[in-house]
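Batch queue: ligand-bound targets. Current item pairs a single chain with adenosine-5'-triphosphate. No template structures supplied; prediction is de novo from sequence plus SMILES. Inputs echoed for audit trail.
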Amino acid sequence: MSSDLKIKVRGLKKAFGSNVVLDGVDLDVPRGKSLVVIGGSGTGKSVMIKCILGLMQPDAGSIEIDGQEVVGMPARERERVMRKFGMLFQGAALFDSLPVWENVAFGLISGRGMKRGEAKEIALRKLSAVGLQPEVGDLFPAELSGGMQKRVGLARAIAAEPEIIFFDEPTTGLDPIMAQVINELIVTCVDMVGATALSITHDMHSLREIGDNAAMIYQGKIIWAGEAKDIDNSGNPYVEQFVKGKAEGPIRMPVRSF
Ligand SMILES: Nc1ncnc2c1ncn2[C@@H]1O[C@H](COP(=O)(O)OP(=O)(O)OP(=O)(O)O)[C@@H](O)[C@H]1O
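Prediction returned. Tokens below.
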């Protein structure tokens, strides 16, 4: 039933000139669940997320959030829907010139007009939730390791207690131990704020840790969707090749000959 869906995507299409990136994507994100989308490099995962976030206009198709069509929605109304979203970008995307606490509180202060003192208190609480001491709040992003920056990004993503959180390759560039710490924090934080989560990743380990459900995108379409625990027995040769990381199989990587 569509009321059980937080996000419902149907027939989403997007091309750049002759490069057809999304060719009729259908995706269901059930309310309160964590869906992880996998797919090779350049298969359109980021383009799909950008369309859902309203950062990119699709050529065709429908995106419903809480049963409300957002494609073609007037900018003002769309902004209100965007407030339901939190986002952890690849590489954390922190503002270098702002101390850590202000990075976390940015959306609260500039987006919601919260007083700085109140926003700082919330920011320090969220930093503590991701295992960072209050002293870290006064440091600048350049003074932090990559893993700490990811934690700060996560604290920022949950600062406004969003209904939906997007995770863009949350473990890319981290060592396996820090990747696991971030995976566990994602699960805890998503639970803590009771959010629905949509992630994109190449990292199969991360998928198994953070996903209730999984989907695979290939050649502009979702070619498999199911419970994350079933991904090893998908019966789909494309999914199998990706999951096992095999060079041989139906997926052909574009290789340029010089
Ligand atoms: N603004 C844009 N203008 C033109 N082409 C674009 C634009 N954004 C994305 N593309 C193209 O869309 C395709 C898919 O890109 P996208 O970034 O969504 O891939 P991805 O699956 O997220 O890849 P990766 O896993 O490597 O991040 C690529 O061929 C890319 O060149």
